[in-house]
Structure formats: structure tokens, C-alpha cells
Amino acid sequence: MIVALILLPTFAAAAVLAIRSAAARRTLLVLVALGHAGLTAATFVRPAGPQLGGWLLLDPLGAVFLAILSLLFLTAALYGIGYLAREARRPTGLADEGFLATNQPEAVFTACLLMFLATMTLVTVSHNFGLLWVAVEATTLASAPLIYFHRQKRSLEATWKYLLVCSVGIAVALLGNFFLAIAVTEPDGRSIPLVLNDLLAAADQLDPTWLKATFLLFLVGYGTKMGLAPLHTWLPDAHSEAPSMVSALLSGALLNCAFLAILRILQVCSAAGLAGFAQPLLILFGLLSMSVAAVFIIRQDDFKRMLAYSSVEHMGLLALGVGLGGAATFGAMLHALNHSLTKGMLFLVAGNLLAAYRTKSVAGTGGAIRVLPVSGALWIAGILAICGSPPFGPFVSELAIIKAAFDQNATWVAVAVLSLLAVIFIGMAAAMLRMAYGAPPERLAAETRPREQACTFLPPLALAVLVLVLGVYVPPVVEDALRLAALALGGRQ
Amino acid sequence: MDFWVNCLVVLIAMTNLRLLGSSRVVSCVHTVAFQGVLLGVLAIVGASGGLAAHGIVLAAVNIVLKGLVFPWLLMRALRETHLRREVEPAIGFGASMLLGVLLIGICLWIGSRLPLPVGVQASPLLVPAALFTLMVGLFMIVAGRKALTQVVGYLSIENGITAFGLGFALKEALLVELGILLDAFMAVFVMGIIIFHISREFDHIDAGELSALKD
């Protein structure tokens, strides 16, 4: 079953390159997304066995991230039908570029999208640290062409930055892999295989000094990809220049994959009794990321960059939650789910706004609620949700993390998080109000507007409903899955 | 055998100084390719206790990929972009060389501070040399103004890390090692394509000009 999850999108990617009809390609994309979601759901009913001698294994932790990925990809694929059709008719050349940009051939784009799904799936099921590295680097390579969908200078610059910064970052993680290989070498020259379960079983035999160095390199290396400050420099550029459906996947699925890689080494460190070394580092990086995000969200005039910095903030919050441990670990798992759904929805809505207004500037996007009634309303709900307002899902998970911080007497952490969240709320709410209720630009206010098409707002609407439901009631299936994942990380409850 | 391993490690370290000092993009590409070939040889010499199939395959793939395929890809990118062949670094050659010598000192010091576990046997020069290669790569990415020299810097980082793994004869599974090389190949391939687009859009590959996106 695991192998099928990876091979399905891989073969589809090859097939897409050969298909000439655009409609057939888009149908195949949605079919693969549906198939992937179906297979993922099936793994929850009947757990899949290990493959390749334990290298590929779907454990509770990986299952949570796989489910998030699969759900988000399905939504993005459904959104993609309308998006790609619209782009084919009229490419979103930005006004500030001065000319209409051409787009990448759609077949290449769709193939890369499917490879992106395959490589991210591989990340969630890799239990060998070497294979995990190969998979994470492969996600970078599969997604770089996606960012360069609109062929213009700005997206080219973003792609180059993404490719270079992430490749160098991940090279650091490769050094971490070799350090880990040294840490597992026993005095008689034999070594433990770099497979997660073997390492967890033999954790007390690992060399602590080299394991600590390994954790540091993994944190810096995969942290670059996850967007932890101060290594986040590629993130705002890539998220703002990529087409919106890709931004949704980058933010909601790719960052999680990098986070998962850090969680894997955290599992080993915890088993080796080094949690006391690793967790404060995660808290430090978490707080730093939230602070940097807060600084850049205030007075941000590019709404996609604003969402990107919000991702930096939430990745920081995830690192912080896991760093606190205990009940906060469950909170972090729930928050990973909530953040992915909310941010995915926001980026899809941002795509609708961008298509109507042709600008990413907050100031130029006034009156969204009148120009695009459904998308405008979704935008308001999404921003409120991502800032942690009740009754949406992120409120519950942020509350769980902050409450755990108070319970553990980490009062100063809780206070710092609360004040940073308040600052970010003010920054994002101010932008949201201007966009929703400001005066629309004359061109859009005057012309008789066509009604919004269902295919553009139904996918984000579905995500919004999920986020709302998660804020009121977490279904037992979801709760059990998240609890098992938190348990694998050593969190209580 | 230790003698030859030491010689190779020193040679690898010396290619770094050449990277720092060369003024032409072409010779940078050649030097980093030579480094890759040296790594392949290191895989053969460093394999203690006879040559297993594992070591031979790894060495062969290393030499073919890093010694032949990468330079071919990069030279093609260089030809197609018609750019000027000078490196034009942000920091002068003299200062770069001086910094290189300083880096060697720092790397030797770090190497002396990292005690290897008892079971690991390797040349004492290996850790400093690998670190030095890595740092020179980082320096080339930061100081290099051309997209192509940044790719050479990335390859140098990759080489430094590979030297670390090969020199310790660390037993990663062959599949993983090949996966790592495949990723490196794809990275250079994708970077080559992007460089081509950069040269077409901007009429140059001066990465210093890529500065529209900032806060």
C-alpha cells in the first residue's frame, strides 16, 4: 500500500507529459489526488505493513502528516482545474512587471506537481535517515519549477533563491546524517543501521556528543526548509511568487515535511535521554521565528508575503510546542493540522483575489467583500482563524500550547507567545480590514462584474468548513491519530 | 594505505585554494570536477579490508558523475549563456586566498576538538579537510556574484560532505548513497536550467542583480 502511494503519482507524472489534451491532464491530476486520498484513508482502516526491510513504514506520526498532505493536495487539485483553465486563457501577468508574462507549459507544471506529491509522500513514510534526506531534497527539486510557473523576473529570482538556500541548508542536514553514522559506530567497529526503530531500540548505545552535533545540524538543515528564522529567507519570496495553489502546498504540506524530519531526530534524541538538550533549542528557534514574523507582518503591503510570514510564525509555534513537550506536543500536532488547512485555504483565496485585482498590494485590493462576495467573506474568516480567534480550529490548538506552557511553569514563554500573537493579530487584522472594506479600485467598482465561479471558491470553502468544525469539535478518529502521534514524540496525555 | 589516504586528503584541501584563487569560471568548473574525481579515488583507497562491490560502484558513479557529467552540464550552461568568463568576485583574490589560509587554521583547530569514537578509524586530517572544503563552498556562494560560481560553491559543499562520509568509510546503504548522488545530479541539472532562464531574462547571470524581492 505504501509503495502504491508513492508510485501512483510518479507514474501519473510520466503519463501527464505524454498527454496532449489539457482537459485530460487536469482530470488525471484530480483522479490521482482522489486515488491518493483514498489510499491514505485506507491506511487508517487497515494499517500498512513495513516495506523494503523497514525502510518504508507508516507510523502514527507519519500518518498524521500524510493525511494532511493528501487532503490538502486533493483540495489544491480541485482548485487547480479552474485555476489552470483561467491561466490558460489569461496568464496572471502582474501589473508592476510591466508586461504580460507567459506561463510554463502546463504539462510540465502538472508533472512537477505530481512528482511533488510523490516526494512528499516519500518523506512521510521514510524511516531510514538517508532515504529521508534523499526524499526531502527531492521535494526541493520537484517544487522549484512550480515556483517558476509565471515566467517573469521576480519568480525567477524567487526560484533561484529557493533552490540555492534550501539545497545548501539540506546539505548541512546531510552532514548531520554522517555525524549520526559516526554516533552509531560501536567500539568494535560495528554500527547500528540508520533506521528509526533500530536507533530507538539501541538509543542508549549512541555517542551523546556526536548525537548532539547531529541534532544541531538537522535543526539548522531541515530548519532552513521548514522556514525557522533566521533561516527563513527563501520562504516569503517563494510563497509570494509561486502560483497560489502551489503556495498553498508549500505552506501547508512542504513545511510540515521538513518539520517531520526534525521530529524524527528529536525522537532519537529523546530516546537517548537528550531531550533536555534538544527541546530548549526548539523553543529558542520557535520564539525567534515568531518574533521575526511579527516584525515583518506589521505594515506588510504584499498580502501573499503577509501569509508567508504568518507561516514562519506558525512553524515557530509548532517548534515551540514540541519543544515544551508534555501536553503541548498534542497541541502542536493539532496545530499542524489546523495551520495547514487554514493556510491552504487562505492561499487559495489569495489566488482568487490576485486574479481579480491583478496586484498583491494590500492597498490596491480594497472592497474585496463587494467585488468578490464569497472570496471576500472567506478571506475575513481565514485571517480571523489563522490569528487564533474562536470559534476556529487554530484557537483550540494555540490555547492547548499556551495552557501547557503555563502548566509547566514556563510562564515567560507563554507570556512571550501571547504578546507576539497579539502583535501579529493586529498586523493581519489591519490589512484584512483594509482589503475587505476599503474602497475598490475604479476599474472594478465600475464594471459589471461576472459572478464568481464555483470552482474557484468551493475548495477553499470546504477547507473553511473543516477549520470551523475542528474549532468546535475534534472527531474521535482525528483525536486518536493525533494522540498516537504525540505519544510517539514522548508527549503525555 | 594511510599514506595514500593522507595524500588524497591534502590534495582535496589544495584544490580548494585553487577554487579561491582562480579568476576564470572555466577553471573553477574544472577544479571542482577534479575534486570529485579525487573523491572517487578516496572511496577506493579508503575502503579498508578489501574492495567490496559497494566501494567500486560508489567510486565509479562518483567519478563519472562529478568528473564528467557535472562539468559537461556546467560548461554547456556556460556556452549557451555567452557570458563573460571572468569570475568577478565580490571579494578580491588576494583577500580570498588569505581568508582560505585562515580557514585552514580554523578547520584544523575544530578537527582537533572533535574526538572520534573508538570504533571509527580515519586519517586525522580528514575532518579538517572536509570542513575546509565545505567552508570554501559556502564562501563561494556568499561571495560569488555569478549564478554559475554559486553552483560550483554548492558542488564544493557537496564534495566536502562526501569526503567526510567516504573518508570514514561510513556504511550507509548503497541505495542511499546512490540516491544522494542522484539528488546532486538533479540539483545541478535544475540549477543549469534556471541559469539558462536567468541569462535569457536578465541578459547576464549576475546573481547580485537578483534583488527585486526584499522587505
How would you briefly describe this protein structure?
The complex is a heterodimer of chains A (493) and B (215). Chain A has 20 helices and two strands. Chain A has 493 residues and is mainly alpha-helical.
3D architecture notes:
The complex is a heterodimer of chains A (493) and B (215). Chain A is mainly α and 493 residues long. Chain A has a domain at 280-493. Chain A contains 20 helices and two strands. Chain A has helices spanning 2-18, 22-45, 60-89, 106-125, 129-147, 153-183, 196-201, 208-226, 234-241, 244-271, 275-297, 303-324, 327-357, 368-371, 373-386, 393-407, 411-437, 442-446, 454-472, 476-488, and strands at residues 102-103, 150-151. Chain A has a two-stranded antiparallel ribbon. The longest helix of chain A has 31 residues, at 153-183. Chain B has one domain. Chain B is built from seven helices and no strands. Chain B has helices at residues 2-21, 25-46, 53-81, 93-113, 126-143, 147-167, 174-202. The longest helix of chain B is centred in the N-terminal third of the chain and has 29 residues, at 53-81. Chains A and B meet through helix 5, helix 6 and helix 9 of A and helix 5, helix 6 and helix 7 of B.
